[in-house]
Amino acid sequence: MTWGLVEVRREIDALRRHAERITDPVLREDALLALREKRTHADGAALFAILPRRRHAGLVSLLVAYETILDFLDEVSEHHPTEANGRELHMALIDALVPERRMADYYRHHPRRGDDGYLDALVERCRQLCRTLPSFDEVRTQLTREVWRTQVLGLNHVLPATRRDDLLRRWVREEFSDEDHRLDWFELSAAASASLVVHSLLALASEPGVTACEVRDARSAYWPWTSLATAMLDSYVDIDDDRESGNHSYIGHYRTEGCGISRLCDCIRRAAVQAAELPNGRRHAVILSAMIAMYLSKDSARVSTRRPATRRFLRAGGALPRLLLPLLLAWRMAYALRSA
């Protein structure tokens, strides 16, 4: 996977050069901050390039570009946390992977509009790369359904918190009226906030001759347990910062922190079983284990008060996350990403 890390670095460097040319100072800093502080997300997205049997030249570029849109919008929407702004901004995630759609006016409800074409260029880059995927038409229906669910990301920063939670509850009722009653409303919205199903479908689309059964398997590999586990791990490593800043914390919705830790252990175990049962299960297991180790190698997961829970999560994931943890620690140090 060394080749993938090299490609990610090349893509990030090109995006950084574009971001540095953004005229508006706030949007420029949002773009640069997302590239700098969320580099781990881009590397995590690129992991999905190990799934296809043969390497596709544009897959890593597509995965990184899509993840960059997501990370950039997370920063931008936080500065103007209204429902209208969040929803309109996050239409970019839909437009990026539904190439026939007319691109929205993403900044229509945002006080700042001058990103000098940065977001439009990312969307167009994704659209062009989608057209190079040999089985894009075969995954299109399921992919479109999943990317429309990314609208939940537009609600995560809405204030006040009571308004945000009401919107998320309503969204879950409308979106999951007849499925996934195993999960509570905040678990469903957290899982939907992850982009893993989208990444897995894009990886699948890079292979020729994809079948409907393979499309179903690609979704079931990451929904719901792996998506929920990674979303809650992301929330867990930020739990102290979120408490201090007042930001939305998905793991904070559990009745007690102990309940949240126990539930997350259960999700990780279920995700590991889910991955192992699939065709090509070893590669899915590597992705899951790498993500567990990536989150738990962050400095905030290794402070003294967090170590007991972190050890529980590693045990829940099995042997591979424990083996990968030292490698991820070294990777974070090499790229100066210990707190990212």
Average pLDDT works out at 93
Low-confidence stretches: none
Q: What does the overall shape look like?
A: globular
Q: What's the total count of β strands?
A: 0
**Helical element count?**
18
Tell me what the structure shows.
The chain is 66% helix and 0% strand. It is mostly helical. The chain has two domains: 1-223; 224-340. Helix 4 runs antiparallel to helix 7 (118-130).
Keywords:
2 domains; globular; 66% helix; 340 residues; mainly alpha
Secondary structure: elements and pairs:
Blueprint: H1 2-19, H2 25-37, H3 39-46, H4 59-79, H5 83-89, H6 91-97, H7 118-130, H8 136-148, H9 161-175, H10 185-193, H11 196-205, H12 212-220, H13 225-237, H14 239-245, H15 257-276, H16 281-296, H17 307-317, H18 319-334
In short:
With about 350 residues, the protein is an all-alpha fold.
